Amino acid sequence: MANRNYILMHKHIPAADIQLDGATGVIRSIGTIKNPEHIPVGIPVKNGIADRQALNSWWAGRAIPASRDRIQDALKKLGVSSTQLLLEKCLGLSLSDQYWICPVSENIQWEDINFFQNDFSDDVGNILFGRGPSSERMNMMSPDNTSDGWLKKKWVIADGKRCLLKGGSGATQQEPYNEVIASIIMKRLGIPHTSYSLTVQEDYPYSLCEDFITSDSELITAWYIMQTERKPNHISIHQHYLNCCSALGIPGIQLAVDQMIVLDYIIFNEDRHQNNFGVLRDAETLKYTGAAPIYDSGTSLWFDKPATMIGSVKAVCKPFKTSHEEQIKLVSSFDWLELEKLDNIEDEWMELTKNSLFLDENRRRAIANALRNRIQRLDKILRSSIHMVSGTGGDVVEDIKYSGYFDPSGP
């Protein structure tokens, strides 16, 4: 297949000329850098030359991951050999940012094709859900081509709003319930978050959330923020992220990270990787506006563990430490946290899951008890904190970090 020439666009602004391999969809070459400030965040540009490997990694990261449930069957039905080739079918358009590719031979305007302001096809999403296309002539112009994650999901338009419908996995199909209870916990604690609701289709549970990105904003994940500066060996990942955000002038990050760590401790989140949290940027001014609301919390609450292991098994922790007990020590302050607001949260869990065909009474009760236990453990951490004691005139007479909850590799 012939290679194809495109302009990498940022909304209506050309960023760079690129050429895609017709057989694989990878970026074969990068031509003229037209507006370097509009090259995706974290992609190095030196002396007018962009790092092709880094840009290829970014481009490939827009594609549906190969780990997506039943993706090979879907690709056969869609008539393509890889998820990366699907990117061209929708011109790389996403509902997470404003980047896309424009064929050099065509006069296409962002306003006429972006998914924030224009309808899109259900065909790809339906096939990803194991259904057939809506018509014989398949339309692949869809944001589902650029949806990340391994769970079954599709974008829908509900009452004019762009919403993500996401399923569960395995025998318990638990992730949608986890998303909903996590958003309830965050609402009670006053943590900025994406609100999830529960819906059932053909007896299977799904979580539904409205897109928090608009046609004027975009999500930049933590991974790409951390590529904006080289990490010194003596600086932790946690501190490096804070340093990068500070250098970029992004407000409110320390509190946002503290709140994310606390939430993940409570819900025993196992997969808060560097690509499912981040910051928001104005797509027009390129000014950062703050942390993104917390989203994607489904891989939590012992979602893939048997009931007998709930509350007792150790799990891998991300993104800053390998255990929640160590990661919670990174929280700079708990002054904002009022755990009493989570009184009876386990009752909400029981009510939420009472009609589930996949979660039996034993499992539901085990999770409710384990959730209460996590809150109690966190309460003990708060109670054992030792605060600085100030003397007269504001002099510090005892300089003791509370219970060691500080980043030892910070500056």
Keywords:
globular, 411 residues, Phosphatidylinositol 3-kinase Catalytic Subunit, Chain A, Domain 5, 28% helix, alpha+beta, disordered C terminus, 2 domains
Mean pLDDT: 91
Architecture of the largest domain, according to CATH? Answer: Orthogonal Bundle
**What characteristic shape results from the CA principal axes?**
globular
Briefly note the CATH topology name of the largest domain: Phosphatidylinositol 3-kinase Catalytic Subunit, Chain A, Domain 5
Count of discrete structural domains: 2
Distance between the termini: 52 Å
List the helices and strands and how they pair.
Blueprint: E1 4-10, E2 13-20, E3 27-33, E4 45-46, E5 49-50, H1 52-60, H2 71-78, H3 83-89, E6 99-103, H4 110-113, H5 123-128, E7 153-158, E8 161-166, H6 175-189, E9 196-201, E10 204-210, E11 217-221, H7 222-225, H8 237-247, H9 253-267, E12 278-282, E13 288-291, H10 324-327, H11 345-352, H12 361-383, E14 389-390, E15 396-398
Helix pairs in contact: 6-11, 9-12, 11-12
Summarize the structure.
28% of the residues lie in helices and 18% in strands.
Give a description of the structure:
By secondary structure, the protein is an alpha+beta fold. It folds into two domains: 4-118, no CATH class; 217-390, Orthogonal Bundle (Phosphatidylinositol 3-kinase Catalytic Subunit, Chain A, Domain 5). The protein is 28% helix and 18% strand. It has helices at residues 52-60, 71-78, 83-89, 110-113, 123-128, 175-189, 222-225, 237-247, 253-267, 324-327, 345-352, 361-383; strands at 4-10, 13-20, 27-33, 45-46, 49-50, 99-103, 153-158, 161-166, 196-201, 204-210, 217-221, 278-282, 288-291, 389-390, 396-398. A four-stranded antiparallel β-sheet has the order 3-2-1-6, with helices on one face. It has a four-stranded antiparallel β-sheet with strand order 7-8-10-9. A three-stranded antiparallel β-sheet has the order 11-12-13. Strand 4 (45-46) and strand 5 (49-50) form a beta hairpin. The longest helix has 23 residues, at 361-383. The chain is globular. Residues 386-411 have low confidence and may be disordered.
